């Protein structure tokens, strides 16, 4: 009898531990390029918000062949396998992807169910538009791979494929090759005397979706409004206050009882030519009016922040995108990839061997 009671207590204890683990379980999602190119990032976030899944990580990334091969080795499948866009290797290396961490009760199972729905954003007539981890262990390994924090700068500086552009003016890598490729574009060559000028444009701004939007579960709606009213998003990442405590975006933030101060999150973006139809008001900071039918978007400063031009813009870039921006250059094919996605540096580790042939 004593052994049976001890066994029952052990089983009950194990169940309690498993239940606790389900409460804050983390799931991983990789949104394929069609989500970014179709401007569906906001819709993607809204789906998870509606299911009470909290966004704990998000990165717009470009990745290289070795990275994609490692991903397929971990999850199964064949990187050279055909899809509607060519091979998976070609598709995932030539266009931006979005890596996400979602947290909530039984998150892995629930996210798998959501991304498996055929009549949803996660499927198109050309096949799946996203991958999600199918077990808790797999999710943790995927998160470790896609959200690694390696010191890549030394590799970046020596790379023959990666151009690293720092907001303060430093440039590393094959910038001459990239410039020679880009100058074939008449609009580029006539307006920008060097490659740094092309990517540090005056009509860019840093736009930050603030913690209040996370608390009110309207991050997806605001992101959709930004996507639909700008010339392009050149960088995107989720930033915690603990990683960027000095920014003014936290000044009017009220920490909720369920969130510790350092855990508060924002979604920072580098936005090109945000439309004047997207109105930010400081006079009414609590205002949140998003009407997709009428095209009226009016948001108070409690929900969103937009940098001013000049020094303030560069200060925000350094705060939220401290490693600058990158391009991936393939002179053999006369193409420039990566454009301005800061997190692409993470995906490009390890940097391709200079002796190896890069194909895209």
UniProtKB/TrEMBL annotation:
Alphabetical list of PROSITE patterns matching this protein: NDPK_LIKE
Stated family: Belongs to the NDK family.
Start and end residues of each Nucleoside diphosphate kinase-like domain: 24-154
GO molecular function: nucleoside diphosphate kinase activity
The keyword Kinase belongs to this UniProt entry's keyword annotation: yes
InterPro entries (alphabetical): NDK-like_dom, NDK-like_dom_sf
Protein name (Swiss-Prot/TrEMBL): nucleoside-diphosphate kinase
A Pfam family matched in the record: NDK
Source organism, top-level taxon: Eukaryota
Enzyme nomenclature, EC number: 2.7.4.6
Enzyme class: transferase
Catalytic activity: a 2'-deoxyribonucleoside 5'-diphosphate + ATP = a 2'-deoxyribonucleoside 5'-triphosphate + ADP; a ribonucleoside 5'-diphosphate + ATP = a ribonucleoside 5'-triphosphate + ADP
Keyword terms of this UniProt record: Kinase, Transferase
Keyword set includes Manganese: no
Coiled coil: none
Cofactor: Mg(2+)
